[in-house]
Amino acid sequence: DTGVSQDPRHKITKRGQNVTFRCDPISEHNRLYWYRQTLGQGPEFLTYFQNEAQLEKSRLLSDRFSAERPKGSFSTLEIQRTEQGDSAMYLCASSFWEGTEAFFGQGTRLTVV
Amino acid sequence: SQQGEEDPQALSIQEGENATMNCSYKTSINNLQWYRQNSGRGLVHLILIRSNEREKHSGRLRVTLDTSKKSSSLLITASRAADTASYFCATDIGAQKLVFGQGTRLTINP
Questions:
Q1: What is the pLDDT of residues B27-81, one digit of tens each?
Q2: Do B30 and A99 touch (CB under 8 A)?
Q3: Which of A17, A37, A64, A77 has its CA 20 to 30 A from that of B80?
Q4: How many angstroms away from the CA of A64 is the closest CA of chain B?
Q5: What angle do CA A77, A83, A85 make, to 5 degrees?
Q6: Cα–Cα distance between B106 and A46 in angstroms, integer?
Q7: How far is A16 from chain B (nearest CA, A)?
C-alpha cells in the first residue's frame, strides 16, 4: 500500500498524559498536513510542512501541540498534557506540490478519558 | 474558521436518483476540491477544479465552479448505495492549506 499511513489508528489515554502520532506520507510528496476533525464537522487545519520545514501552524493550536518532520519524510504530532477537548480524529495528508490534490490517511482517533 | 459552507447539511435520496450538493465560499481561490468521507474513515479526493475552469467531469461526478458567485456544485448521477458518505468541499486560497466546509451527509436509500 503506497498511500498515506497513520499509526496508531486508535488511542485511548488518560487526561494529562502525553500522546504521539505518526504519519508516513506518500514518498514523493513534499507537503504534509495535519488536520483535526470532530464529530459532524469538517477537518480543521493544524499545521503543514514543506519538506522538513514547518511553514504554518494554526493560531487555534495551543502550545501543548507540537509537530515535527525530520528529514522531510515521516511526521509526528505530539500532544502534551492531554485534555478531554483534545478527543478527535487526527488526520494526516500529503500532496506533491501546492495546488495539487491532497491524499489523506485513515486518521488516528484519540479519546481522552 | 470554515471558509466553505455546504448545502444542504444532509440529503437523502433513492438509489438511481441524482444528488446535488452546493458549496459557497468567501474569498478568492486558486482551486476548489471535493472529498468524500465514509463514516469514521479518512477523506478520499474526488475532483479538483481550478479557478479558471467552469466545469469538470469524472465518471458519474460533475463539478461546476462559479467564481463570480463564489460557489461550486457537485452532482452525482445515478446514485448507488455505495455513494452514502459525507462530502466536503475544500478551498485552496493560496495560503498553503485547504480549508474545509462542514460537509453534506448523503444517504442513498435502496
A1: 888 899 999 999 878 899 999 999 999 999 999 999 999 999 999 999 999 999 9
A2: yes
A3: A37
A4: 20
A5: 90
A6: 27
A7: 25
